[in-house]
Amino acid sequence: MFTTKANKIFQDVIEKYHIINTVDQPFENAYPENDLIEHLLYRKCWIDTVQWHYEDIIRDPQIDPVAALTLKRQIDASNQDRTDMVEYIDSYFLEKYKDVTAKDDAAINTESPAWGIDRLSILALKVYHMNEEATRADASDSHKAACQKKLDVLLEQRVDLSTAIDTLLSDIEKGDKYMKVYKQMKMYNDDELNPVLRSQK
Question: Which residues are bridge partners to 178 per DSSP?
Fold first, then answer.
């Protein structure tokens, strides 16, 4: 199943990040570009992992305001990278299934495969960090028990989401569903579409 591979890659990325555990560490993709989907999945989860930690840092109540503004810009750039990677992953599936003829009664899904994969990558981060909290040596028993309950739910959610993504890909391959991808067309980074940026030109 596709998500078996994806979940393994996500786990590898998150564990790799936490060896050094800093947002400014260099990135090196474990997969060459000719292993396209693996390459994209690895990059996607790395972006998500760094951004997860950006979001932790910016919530520090003692953060210097200038540093916070710089970090906000980094988060904005990371969000754009994340969206771009989702679109690259969807392009991979569009190419893969380009010769499939959709059945007359084929339906469209509420989200594309890559946006489901996006949620699966974020879910891998939730599982990793909730497991950390459920097993943290200096935490109280009540804290660990509460986090273990949440972890159990997250693990169940990962099974359900993985099943849904694999089913969607199978349905597309069989022609029971078809892909239709909408570019995100985010407006706030565009100096023609964001009125504040436009006014600075």
Answer: 108
